[in-house]
């Protein structure tokens, strides 16, 4: 799942206010409505799995039951996109309204996030940092209280024989311990749907904060490190293959040695996340004109903005999940 990488068009300039085309938001509104309905369906399916078994038109009215998941998740996504959009407008960088991506049934969360288009590259180093950081920071302002409220409603129960394990990050584990309480061995927090929405917010932010290319983390890292970021980004993308290999060894190794009850298909499904994202980054590079970040004009970041940049990179480490999703 991705959220709001910015894709520049071929125009290598920043347009002035009077050069901008009139805002057209019909498609944006349609995609937003479709994404909202898709996320409501996913939330209702988390409460009643039978909704996913067939698209029965007579049961469509039941999607309203998914509001404890859908409303918090859409609030996180809207906050993230609003952060990017407002920062771009403040710096007079032309940016489209977000294009939300509905993905019913194919995604367990009902969406693949959103993208924002920019009619030109961001020339200012300060603007690059502000626009890149505003989205994740605004999204986290919503995601953290959503997760805290959801965890406080989530019981701690023994794991069943077959269960799904959401990705564990340092920040997520600390929040589970603080808001849900001590977790005995063999047990875990059984996530309330609102907690699931908060966790998805962490996952979205983690993916976007990868310090690569046109992702938010790529904008932030390039604003901080300049041309050195190109080499860092190449190693970041290679590390996605290393993470895939790590998970293959973790899940497939015991299967091949007959020390796990998982089947080969399930072990591969648990391992493939980072391989998929290796492919997605290649697609993003092709769409945006290459993996290297476009240069900015000479300029320096003030002490406060450098602190924000480092805070964002530290936030990425706290949100990082080596295995974002696994079935046992």
- Average residue-wise pLDDT: 88
What percentage of residues falls in helices of 4 or more residues? 55-70%
Radius of gyration: 20 Å
What sort of overall outline do the alpha carbons produce when their principal axes are compared? globular
SS content category? mainly alpha
Q: How many beta-strand segments?
A: 7
Number of helix segments? 10
Measured between the Cα atoms of the first and last residue, the distance is: 22 Å
Main sheet properties = 3 strands, mixed
Task: Give the strand order, joined by hyphens, for the main sheet.
Answer: 1-3-2
Briefly summarize what is shown:
This protein has 328 residues and is mainly α. The protein has helices at residues 26-47, 67-90, 125-152, 170-180, 193-208, 216-225, 228-256, 264-271, 273-288, 303-319; strands at residues 6-8, 99-102, 111-118, 156-158, 164-166, 187-189, 325-327.
């Amino acid at each position: 799942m991705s959220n709001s990488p910015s894709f520049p068009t071929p125009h290598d300039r920043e347009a002035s206010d009077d050069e901008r085309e009139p805002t057209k938001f019909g498609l944006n509104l349609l995609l937003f409505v479709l994404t909202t309905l898709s996320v409501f369906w996913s939330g209702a399916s988390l409460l009643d799995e039978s909704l996913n078994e067939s698209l029965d038109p007579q049961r469509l009215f039941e999607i309203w039951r998914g509001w404890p998941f859908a409303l918090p998740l859409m609030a996180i996504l809207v906050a993230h996109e609003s952060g990017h959009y407002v920062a771009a407008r403040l710096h007079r960088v032309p940016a489209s309204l977000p294009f939300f991506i509905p993905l019913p049934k194919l995604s367990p969360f009902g969406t693949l996030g959103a993208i924002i288009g920019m009619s030109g590259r961001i020339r200012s180093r300060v603007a690059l940092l502000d626009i890149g950081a505003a989205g994740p920071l605004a999204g986290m302002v919503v995601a953290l209280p959503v997760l805290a409220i959801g965890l406080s409603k989530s019981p701690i129960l023994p794991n069943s024989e077959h269960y799904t394990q959401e990705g564990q990050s340092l920040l997520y584990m600390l929040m589970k311990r603080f808001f849900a309480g001590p977790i005995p061995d063999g047990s875990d927090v059984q996530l309330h749907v609102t907690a699931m929405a908060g966790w998805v917010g962490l996952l979205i932010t983690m993916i976007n904060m990868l310090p690569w290319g046109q992702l938010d983390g790529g904008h932030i890292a390039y604003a901080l490190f300049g041309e050195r970021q190109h080499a860092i980004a190449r190693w970041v993308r290679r590390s996605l293959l290393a993470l895939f290999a790590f998970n293959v060894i973790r899940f497939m190794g015991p299967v091949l040695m007959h020390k796990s009850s998982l089947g080969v298909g399930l072990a591969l499904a648990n391992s493939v996340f980072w391989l998929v994202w290796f492919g997605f980054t290649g697609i993003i590079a092709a769409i945006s004109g290459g993996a290297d970040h476009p240069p900015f004009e000479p300029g320096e970041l003030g002490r406060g903005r450098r602190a924000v940049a480092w805070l964002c990179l530290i936030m990425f480490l706290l949100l990082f999940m080596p295995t974002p999703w696994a079935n046992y």
